[in-house]
Amino acid sequence: MSEKATKRQELIKEAYRFGYFVGYKGHTEWVSWVSKKKGEIYEKAKLFGIYNEVRTAYEKGIEDGKARRLKEIELGLSKLESEIIPESTKEATKTKEKEEIEEEYQAFAKTPKIMEPPEILKLIKSLEAPKMLSLPKMLGGEE
């Protein structure tokens, strides 16, 4: 095979792989780095005269990537939780989380300033309730 034919094949493979990546990861094509990379691939394809083949490979890669992503999502959702995470790991994780939460709460409880109401609440208590919160006159409210 000639060097030019090898480069053409590599470019088609690159287009397919990039399309597959974009489809699998769920990237949109108008994002700057995706459109830039796609543009670079298409420019190389125009130089080799295989633009249509590269475009087809890229689109096929996107379709295949999306299909695999959806298949893996469906497989992941169909598995039972016990198949994904063993019981012993769940229990160990729960106890560790409880301990971390308790430690965090203990540290929080030791700071008295946080537990006391802020000064602004004392100021609000001295104000009257807004009139809009009381019933209208027609419904037996005060004036």
Please tell me about this protein's structure:
The protein has 143 residues and is mostly helical. It has seven helices and no strands.
What's the helix and strand layout?
Elements: H1 3-25, H2 32-48, H3 51-78, H4 81-84, H5 87-109, H6 112-115, H7 119-125
Helix pairs in contact: 1-2, 1-3, 2-3
Q: What's the gist of this structure?
A:
It contains seven helices and no strands. It is an all-alpha fold and about 140 residues long.
How large is the count of helical segments?
Answer: 7
Mean pLDDT, as a whole number? 76
Q: Return Rg in Å.
A: 32 Å
Q: Level of helix content?
A: over 70%
Q: What fraction of the residues are assigned to beta strands by DSSP?
A: under 5%
Give helix and strand order, one letter per element, not per position.
Answer: HHHHHHH
Choose one word for the global shape. Answer: elongated
Low-confidence stretches: none
Characterize the main sheet: none
Structural classification: mainly alpha
Q: State the separation between the terminal residues, measured CA to CA.
A: 96 Å
Total strands: the figure is 0
Features:
143 residues, mainly alpha, 7 helices
